[in-house]
Design goal:
The chain contains 13 helices and 12 strands. It is of the alpha+beta class and 324 residues long. The strands form 3 sheets. It has a 5-stranded antiparallel β-sheet with strand order 4-5-8-6-7. Strands 9-10-11-12 form a 4-stranded antiparallel β-sheet. The chain has a 3-stranded parallel β-sheet with strand order 1-3-2, covered by helices on one side. It starts with a strand and ends with a helix.
């Protein structure tokens, strides 16, 4: 790890000034410190956000939920209000990593973490995402890699929190040295075909200052399911979130997001369209899951993820439908 300067600003403006002069923000620090140890990042100045008041708030009202970027996954998962009204988000927070990491890891850091691909994380490989000329995962050890949009860079999206947040229609509030802006979380992530060295559109001198999640429609039901090799703390091989808006017993609208299937969270649009107006049963859930995986292009060692994802999507829909 390189030598670096540590600063702990007490105001947002001070933090943004440090970022504009080349500093790198630290929230929980779980991913940043890993990358520094691995030699992927070598910042000259680390800007701790911990002393800035208000960035760790969890607030809700009739209009929705407001999460500060420094709210930890543990607090989000434990929040009675989140568990009641945004159940899928609480489930995703509960399933991420280990209890020790959830106590440190922040929701903002979870959204901004970099890919977990072993080729990207190793200094021995100059992969396309690090400025190299090819993606070694496409013809290499790719058993945990993408099954959609994997022809250029085969990473999978690493954020568990992003999956239900997109399903709920979350919007980011972003502040920077040049002003403030808002963006839907779904359009915040950058696809490799647009810019292969980036995962999101946050500029170096910007910070996420809040995540706003709309109040679910009356009668909505939701669920998040994750499948890993180990139940306790593994990265997901497959994960999905579903938010269902009901019109009596029929589905008025479904929002279905797949997590570790592609370089960015993937909306299952064909499945959503198919379910509109239907009664949810095991048969319709299975057909929706088939449509969600239509067009998958598995690599040499990850074809198993296609039937696994079909099962996860179908189960997520059924679990959501059975929620009170």
């Amino acid at each position: 790890m390189n030598r670096f300067e540590w600063v702990a600003p007490s105001t947002l403006d001070e933090a943004l000034d440090h970022l504009a002069r080349g500093g790198v923000a630290k929230a929980g620090g779980v991913d940043l410190l890993d990358r520094m140890k691995e030699g992927l990042d070598r910042p000259a100045r680390v800007v701790s956000l911990a002393a800035i008041p208000g960035l760790d708030r969890i607030e809700s009202d009739r209009d929705g939920l407001r999460l500060g970027p420094l709210a930890t996954l543990a607090r989000i998962g434990d929040s009675a209000e989140v568990r009641s009204r945004w159940r899928a988000l609480a489930q995703a927070a509960d399933k991420a990593a280990t209890p020790q990491i959830r106590n440190m890891a922040t929701v903002g850091g979870n959204l901004l973490q970099r890919p977990r691909c072993w080729y990207f994380r190793s200094e021995a490989f100059d992969c396309l995402r690090k400025g190299g000329d090819h993606c070694p995962a496409i013809a290499g050890e790719n058993q945990y890699h993408a099954i959609f949009d994997n022809d250029l860079c085969a990473i999978v999206h690493p954020s568990a929190a992003a999956v239900p947040l997109i399903a709920y229609g979350a919007v980011l509030e972003i502040a920077g040295s040049r002003g403030s802006r808002q963006t839907p979380l779904e359009s915040f992530f950058v696809h490799p075909r647009d810019q292969v060295t980036r995962e999101h559109s946050l500029a170096a001198d910007e910070l996420i200052v809040a995540i706003r999640v709309p109040a679910p429609a009356s009668g909505s039901r939701a669920a998040y399911l994750k499948q890993g090799e180990k139940e306790s703390f593994d990265w997901p091989i497959a994960d999905a979130a579903a938010v269902l808006e009901m019109d009596g017993p029929a589905l008025r609208r479904a929002s279905i997001i797949l997590g570790a299937a592609a370089p960015v969270p993937r909306r299952a649009r064909a499945a959503e369209a198919y379910l509109r107006g239907k009664l949810l049963s095991e048969a319709t859930a299975a057909e929706a899951a088939r449509l969600a995986l239509d067009g998958a292009t598995p690599l040499s060692k990850n074809g198993y993820k296609v039937p696994l994802y079909r099962t996860v999507v179908a189960r997520t829909l059924l679990v959501a439908a059975r929620q009170p």
